[in-house]
Specification:
The protein contains 12 helices and 20 strands. The chain is of the alpha+beta class and 390 residues long. The structure holds flavin-adenine dinucleotide. Flavin-adenine dinucleotide (FAD) is lined by residues 8-14, 31-34, 39, 44-46, 102, 124, 127, 158-160, 162-164, 266, 285-286, 293, 296-299, 302.
């Protein structure tokens, strides 16, 4: 098989790039290890920044998002017995975020790929990247007993944190930065009306909590838990009781509970791999960087990688201009690190750290008091939350 760009990973990053390039007449093949049903059953992100939503429209996949997604112009922070609102619209100069589930967005991307007869190969086992330093790289995968070879100009590693692409870069070249937080998020999805039309981030001495949503009939709630907790140990009842304890009394009184339709624990981690280009291989999205979900930056950081790669590929194929490809790693990493900083800041501000001392707790309180007393601080939060420019 032959293609221009071989994309490893059929998550949002891989599908989005494939769709955008196809619209420009650039041929791609997407290799996905899992079945489509499996990919579409994963419950993940739900807050899209303005730039991501724009990219969905550019990829001609934004119609349902624009119809069903919710525009959010602010969110709440519950702390120290009160609730303060962050007015995103006011402090970002009129911008907002779109609440639309990653599962729905991935479904839209798959449907768009089908409509254009894009090649997405599922259940691709044992994907291997070959000759990535040469101008004629290729990828192999196993389909049953057969080994299939795909010759290409470029390989995109969009295969998430546990993929193979990043590890194809020699250890002597690859530099990894990692911070593991001493807790995780226990998340519950329930078919219940959300407790609030806007997200509520709750800082509480028992641990952080988040009231999020996917639509007006689908709620997503999280509580901070120790890394040693197992999801099987948490009954629905225990989850709702603990969530209620961490919310202001008037909010917990309004909380509608119901059976969980998904329940999982995600550890919190910050991670960056450099460089994001090695030879003809380009890393994008979670394959190169992940953040704790507190600032809703994960999926949105993937979007800026795709934006840079898309424009660089188009300039290369249409005008013979490879400068965008050459500067990709530096440009993408500059924005990635800003998303890392913001996610770390929000995580540090709102969580209860098991090893914190009284001094740390005073600083957290002071940081929140400063935030809601300063227009400049709220502007900075809003600017980062709605997404820095690509
Ligand atoms: C449990 C969880 C909860 C999250 N919650 C949030 C949230 O609330 N807010 C937020 O902003 N972000 C959240 N994120 C992060 C967000 O979901 C990711 O940033 C986003 O999925 C990145 O998209 P991606 O396409 O780069 O990677 P992925 O979505 O991970 O897609 C990579 C794809 O590559 C495939 N793959 C892996 N290995 C191979 C291989 N060897 N060969 C072929 N294919 C392979 C995988 O099956 C997968 O489909 C969450 C992530 C997780 C894991």
């Amino acid at each position: 098989m032959q293609t221009r760009v071989c994309i490893i990973g059929g998550g949002p990053s891989g599908l989005m790039l494939s769709q955008l390039l196809h619209l420009q007449g650039i041929d791609t093949v997407v290799l996905e290890r899992q079945s489509r049903e499996y990919v579409l059953s994963r419950i993940r992100a739900g807050v899209l920044e303005h730039g991501f939503a724009q990219l969905m429209r550019e990829a001609r996949c934004g119609e349902r998002m624009d119809r069903e997604g919710e525009i959010h112009e602010g969110f709440q922070i519950a702390h120290d017995g009160k609730m303060d609102r962050v007015d995103l619209h006011k402090y970002s100069g009129g911008s907002s975020v779109v609440v639309y589930g990653q599962t729905e967005l991935t479904r839209d991307l798959y449907e768009a790929r089908d409509l254009m007869k894009g090649v997405v190969i599922h259940n691709a086992d044992d994907v291997q990247l070959r000759d990535i330093k040469s101008v004629k790289p290729y990828v192999t995968y196993r389909a049953g007993d057969e080994i299939v070879r795909i010759d290409c100009d470029f390989i995109i590693g969009a295969d998430g944190f546990h993929g193979v692409s990043r590890n194809s870069i020699p250890k002597t070249v690859l530099k990894e930065y990692e911070k593991v937080y001493p807790f995780g998020w226990l998340g519950v999805l329930s078919r219940t009306k959300p407790v609030s039309p806007e997200l509520i981030y709750a800082k509480h001495e028992r641990g952080f909590a988040l009231c999020s949503l996917r639509s007006q009939v689908l709620s997503r709630y999280y509580i901070q838990v120790p890394l040693s907790d197992k999801v099987e140990e948490w009954s629905d009842e225990a989850f709702w009781n603990e969530l209620k304890r961490r919310l202001p009394p008037d909010v917990s009184e309004q909380l509608i509970t119901g059976p969980s339709i998904e329940k999982s624990i995600a550890p919190l981690r910050s991670f960056v791999a450099e460089p994001m280009r090695y030879g003809q291989l380009f890393l994008a999205g979670d394959a190169a960087h992940i953040v704790p979900p507190t600032g809703a930056r994960g999926l949105n950081s993937a979007a800026s990688d795709i934006y840079y790669l898309y424009h660089a590929m188009v300039a290369h194929y249409k005008n013979g201009d490879s400068s965008g490809l050459d500067s990709y790693s530096a440009k993408a990493l500059a924005r990635v690190w800003k998303a890392q900083r913001f996610s770390w800041w929000m995580t540090t501000l709102l969580h209860t750290f098991p090893d914190s001392i009284e001094y740390d707790r005073q600083l957290q309180q002071t940081e929140l008091a400063y935030l809601f007393s300063s227009d400049a601080a709220q502007r900075s939060l809003a600017e980062n939350y709605v997404g820095l420019p690509f």
